[in-house]
Fold these 2 entries.
Entry 1:
Amino acid sequence: MAEVLLGVSGGIAAYKAVDVLRMLQRDGHDVSVIMTRNATRFVGPETFSALSGRPVGLGQFTDPGTAGYDHLDFARRADVAVVCPATANTLARLAHGLADGLLSTSLVAFDGPVVVAPAMNTRMWEHPATVANVATLEARGVVVVPPASGLLADGEVGMGRLASPADVCAAVERVVRHGGEMQGREILITAGGTREPIDAVRYVGNSSSGKMAWAIVDAARDRGARVTVVAANVDLPRRPDVTYRDAGTAEALHRVCLDEFPGCDALVMTAAVADYRPVRAETGKIDKSAASSLQIDLERTTDILSDLAAARADQVMVGFAAEAGAAGLQRARDKRTRKGVDIVVHNDISAPGIGFGSDDNAITIIGPGDAEVFFERRSKRACAEAILDALMSQVTARTG
Ligand code: CTP
């Protein structure tokens, strides 16, 4: 249970902040509300004061002689601040530290975790100024709950709709539960799938999209970790507050991991690394008219996880095991022992609707120690949270 400061800025989505307030209360939190002057044009302050059971913060200055709030009261009291909806203007103020109203002043005076849920017209959301402001906020550790795509209030269709109140509250919940938990920790995450060249244009590859790793990156950042990603052919949006190193082949991935591993506290080896690669990659393009069939000699790649595990100091190591069918779980257990890692995340690639390319996954987290927990189908983000819970239990056990 936390003390939440809910900032409501002036957009049509302001009415949805009422649902957010109710949900936060249902989750057991106490909520104080500050509205910008423009927000009061969309929803009456009485709605928020009646539901929160507290006076709503409106102006920066209270009348002389009244026992009103000031900006420091709100900032002092809150454990977490959530701005919903956050207009382009409010995002800009927050990014630049402007303090020209009660909400902006309170946010500048607040040193706890901040969640923002932007909502605006698509063109405003995509304007370079807004993009830069969002990047600045993310780099500062502010949790941005991205808007959704759909029909906007002005009749246009596009990106900019406020995320669902449930998503906004889930982000607040995560911050309350885990915010800052990984502060000062360096996490190395490999992502995507390697491509091993056959010739100048063809390769042996796999279907890994990088989505699972990307969800782990977001979850780790929200917990305050510093994150380095070694990405093998991942075509997904990148965060400004994460360091990315690209490594397309098993060999390149191995090289970059050797470079980054000594400086990290934990490695999450999500990448699908090719187990075999062509012995020789042709320099040009293989001419199919030269022969009616083609044989490609493959050789084993180095097992990066095992190699790093053999050389580790006290890093916590998480491997993945994509296995098909009932016997797969036992193979995943064996893999943990064989590779010498703390945790193996098993997923059954024969189960429909989950895994490669999908937004959902169903996983069994094997380890640390004797622990083994099955998480039925859920979003990759929710899986990422479970994986980090397991990882952190081992980090804490090891380093206190
Ligand atoms: N992995 C790795 N280096 C490789 C192959 C895999 O580091 N050359 C890592 C993967 O990133 C993953 C884990 O090892 O975290 C399991 O990968 P998988 O290919 O399923 O394991 P294998 O050892 O190839 O399993 P098996 O020998 O049973 O086929």
Entry 2:
Amino acid sequence: MTQNNEKKTKKEKKEKKNKLSLRRKVSNLAFALRQIWEASPSYFIVYYLCTFIWAPLDFLTGSYLLRMIVNSVERDSPPETIITYMLVIGAVQIAANILNNMFWNVISPGQYHRIGTIVRKKLFNKAAEVELACYETPAFYDKYVKAMDEAHERVHKVMQTIDNLIWRIISLACNSMLLFVIDPWLIVFGLFPLLLGFVRRWYNKLNHSIAVDKKPIDRRIKYVRRTFYLGEYSKEMRMGNMYLRMLDELEATYRDFKAMMHKHGIKRAVAKYIQSIGLEVVCVMGAMFYAVWRTTAQGTMTIGDCIVILNSIGTISYCLNNMVQTFADFGEHSLFIEDVRSFLDHEVKIKSPENAPPAERGDISFENVSFRYEGAEQDVLKDVSFTLRQGEHIALVGQNGSGKTTLVKLLLRLYDPTGGRVCLNGEDIKNIDLASYRDSFSCVFQDFKIFSMSVEQNVLLRRSREGDTALAENALRESGAYEKISTLEKGIATTLTREFDEEGANLSIGEQQKVSLARVFAEDTPFAVLDEPSSALDPIAEHKMFENMRRAAVGRSVIFISHRLSSAVDADRIYLMDGGRITESGTHAELMAANGKYAEMFRLQAENYVGREAAV
Ligand code: ADP
């Protein structure tokens, strides 16, 4: 019972959160329109100008001139009059068709793409700024994904929905005026659909419930789909019949979908049925009987008017119905735009003050640094202090989960410490220009990524400049990747992965790691971070790479993380991390002499390599 109440309150809170004030809704729609206006004012003007021209013309040819023609026939008017009316209708229709075709098939697709690109660029620029912690906050991440997926389409949908509304208002006004002129009582039939508002609200509510219940089902289907098409799952999917398990999951989503539709589907059908009956029987048929009665029984209405009434009453009820739906659509668009706006408005916490000085070479020190991930119950780093002197090479070692990678994330200012500070030459790095600070690092991460771009771009990770090819080639030589790259037909210009280029190259994991390592050799940055840089390399490649690295690292400060303690032996200083603290530090010889945990770990690993006797 209490649990049920809790669930209910949570749901209510969520619904409340999803409700936007009218002012905010309007502001969201205005925001969407502003995006289009900023991207292409001329497209914006032509788009709505067309509506203001075509909507009255549509009424003129579809209802007004039609009435004139039938009435002229009935009154035996001269054929020239009738032909003139018909020619006007034909000419307007032909012109409208040509211009509409041009607009929708030639101009609109290009503009649609252009606006999409501009909106996406805004989102990508923001995405490049947001701090890593945002990726770990589900509510924010959901918004982020939704904004990325939907933003540009929603912006267009707002434009179309407003266009639709303008069209309906014009059509409604023209047709109502015509009916009013013919017989004011007819308006009653036209207004009838408004009385069905409560049924429509019920129908929309059911639609909303279906959409909400469908979301988790869709997410599961998407997950199953990903496991089938993403390369990273391909091996496991083929082992142990995992794909059969995934197909079971797909079947389960179908069962859930069926159950969900069973729950809401019949009610939705009833709501729709009442709406249709109300519209078609009461409104259209009622007006039809009234018009036919006046034309035939009373003889007080012309056949032309009778035909126009049937035509206009249908249009009016359609417009009213459609307009109510349009307002519901605005509400939905507004919720999506709200997500986009709150993503764009997100205040980035990791930034530097204006006119902050650029980063320079020097010493980096951690001063009593503590850190806790958002939502976590414990600090991952606890009172960590050490200094990386200019040109010094230090190794961070320790068991999994001891906090090494987190320390590197703080060093790169991907996160800010929750306690203490990280300084460059005594200045808190928060006060140093962030872009130049990050630019002063070359990094290889253990979960390195290769981009579907040329080898050269994968090495340089930035826009090209003159002389880059030689720079990238040298870096590849140093990292040991050039041997393989030089065998490729297009060499360094080869696209990596075949996702977008059939002539692209798929490299082995070891070769990919060598390419990512070349990133460190390519630029002479004052600092280098190597997080498990040789995990995918064979022993010979690893040995060569370390030799080259030693040469390349002269004069640079290097932080190096490795599970293989043998590769830490040459470091100027080794820091052993345990439970988020630095528990031992010194050179290899000092730590071995101290005979602490480092010495124990080193001996254990050595045993695995050379056998117990040799290690002791
Ligand atoms: P190491 O690199 O030494 O293996 P990490 O720095 O990756 O250790 O992780 C240290 C601890 O922080 C681990 O207990 C891990 O579970 C936790 N941790 C790492 N990343 C996150 C995160 N994004 N959110 C919450 N906890 C995390």
